[in-house]
Amino acid sequence: MARLVIVSNRVSVPTGRRVEAGGLTVVLRDGLRKADGLWFGWSGEFAEKPGPAKVTSRGRMSYALLDLNQSDYKGFYYGFANGSLWPLFHYRLGLVDWKAESYRTYRKVNAQFAAELFRLLKPDDHVWVHDYQLIPLGEELRKLGFKGAIGFYLHVPFPSGDIVEVLPAHAELGQALLAYDLIGLQTDRSHHDLLDFLERWCGAERDGDTLIHQGHRIATGVYRAAIDTVGFAKEAAASYQTPEVRNLEESLGGRTLMLGVERLDYTKGLPLRFAAYEHLLAHYEEWLHNVVMLQIAPVSRGELAQYRALRSDLERATGRIAGRFASPDWNPIRYVNQPVPRKVLAGFLRVAQVGLVTPLRDGMNLVAKEYVAAQDPDDPGVLVLSRFAGAVEELGEGALLVNPLDIEHTALAMRNALAMSKDERIDRWRRCLEPLQAWTARTWYDAFVHKLDEVAKAKGELPTAA
Ligand code: ADP
Fold this sequence. Notes:
Radius of gyration: 23 Å
Helix content: 40-55%
CATH class of the largest domain: Alpha Beta
Bound molecules: adenosine-5'-diphosphate
């Protein structure tokens, strides 16, 4: 069996002390352990002149970690990946901060990753590259002469070609994508847009879901990111008994909890969500004193100005809502910037009668799935879900769908969720749960790896020009 090599920007090496990583990380790590695999990526450390990647073994799998030069990392990660690609792929053209120098650094760091990885690769390894930070990695490996199968998985949306085209480097990124043997996307919509972009803008030909470019065949498909549904449900049920979760419940004093949990990111639609909550309190007076909104949003990418501005906006909105509606014995809003351990988070999600997942755009949104999995089957809560989250393709039947820009309608959905009968809650929850039982993080992993194996076999039989 071929060795599997996973490449991602950040690598989470279990230390025993750190809070356990989320579902996809766990499933990737389990898969690598079984396949005697290798996980390659940035060590999280900086070095003036980075040396070769350091390899450490953990049981049957190994990690190879590369230090990066700090100023290179800035250009690669903050400059291009999160200054240009992240806003562009989330349809936020106005936030794209294109700098040719940052793009060059992005290419340089990808070439550096490739050079270090290539030294560790065996000819028949299967390489699985993750996410928008590493789009050119496959092409760089090809330049170095690697001929084995390389797959790429995008964890964020792939927008329409009209949007991608705005990026001055769109054609180069298209060519880089065409160097892979397999490309996986989160949703049907992203899949459709990727095929369209590579065909119409980058000169690939289509044969169903396969692209053909200069004699090279690129398989594409939808592999929805998912969670360990059963495991998360168990965790939620167990953590219900922990002091943190009990304290939260007691602190509510019988009031209903609406909960939002995400990184502090402008894609998550938080200012609009706060505005919708304000509208709810102003127009549905029966909920005054009877509801609490808890927003947990740990700070992320604080080095970027847009993220700092968002933080200030939310602090102001929290103060405004509290000032306008709070009474001596009730504060309608709690806004927490600290991350919460996974186990506790699972319990919090179970306590909340309403889960608020209202991004402006999201590749999948795993929190939506975690909210569903965490519910008490006999008394489940209601998911209020943006129609622009990838999860809508699976949860659209049972969730209350909103356009987050429509504040009045989102407020109405919040009210309907708060007031929903138990029978309807159970019915909607079951409709949400079904797809999450059928397709889990494990299915996601197996499906991608299986396809990569298949693609590798086909490659062995057909000479390619790439
Ligand atoms: P993104 O990848 O854009 O951050 P997702 O919703 O797809 O969004 O995944 C986020 C993951 O991080 C989920 O597994 C979620 O449980 C976890 N997470 C998000 N916010 C927090 C938080 N405040 N504390 C702990 N875990 C969090």
